[in-house]
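ok trying again, last paste got cut off:
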Amino acid sequence: MHFMSATEHHHKHQADHHSGHHHHHPGSGNALLWALALTLSFAVVEAVGGVISGSLALLGDAGHMLTDAMALGLAAFAAWLTKQPRSARHSYGLVRAEVVAALINGLFMLVIVFTITYHAIDRLLQPQPVAGGMVMVIAAIGLMINIVVAMILHRGEQTLNTRAAYLHVLGDLLGSVAALVAGAVIYFTGWIPIDPLLSLLICTLILYSCVRLLREGLHVIMEGVPLNLDYDQIGSAMTEPAAVDSIHDLHVWTLSSGLVALSAHVVIRDMNEWEAVLGELSVQLDRRFDIQHITLQPELMQRACSQGC
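nice, full thing came through this time. structure:
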């Protein structure tokens, strides 16, 4: 096990102090709780209205809102977990909880999309009467609530967790629009197929965003280099100090949203220059790439060459 020297500890402490805002997202938890309360309160109303009116679009939107309430609850719980202090068992704390919650919510959304698609196709093959007027009224109220919830989440901390919750709410918002349009078309023209057709359109739009979110979450779980950073560019920048001969075993990964970690072996010509090199690299990685969680191991050039030059 490698322990930091006093100098390394000093720089690491400065880095941790600078990046403290990345660890916790105090605003995200409150935003998620407000979103949960609004979503859950209207989901029941919309579900009852969907059953009475016979609208699949309205029932689908109610289903979205009910599952979104669960998703928002999970996201709020994950936001709370990320605030818990580090421990001997979890040295980074529980910051990855938001990534796990985002993946679960993304998979949950896939199930919703396929379920609505199945029922929409069934409704196209076997049309059923829909009370267009009632659908319009309920969908209009649902649309306003979803807009408020979306604004609350959009103004909060933008983590993978809140983005996953926002995706659910966006699906609700689009579902409300679909239900409103479907209700209007049925009310004024009597053309019932518009109800399942709009449901299929909304499912397609949600599916695209859902797959993108899942891919990003899996990238984090698989310790991939953050998508906004260039691995080769970081390596080149770390060799810029005159005392640095080369860099190897460079690893860059995401712990959670806005929290990037880096480790590397730094080959230097003179060990007496390490303190200055460490300070320069720490500042450079922070300012140019917003990376503060850094673990750097110095190696003398002669020793590195004897092992593999």
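cool. The chain has two domains: 21-221, 226-308. Residues 21-221 form a domain with the Alpha-lytic protease prodomain-like fold (CATH 1.20.1510.10).
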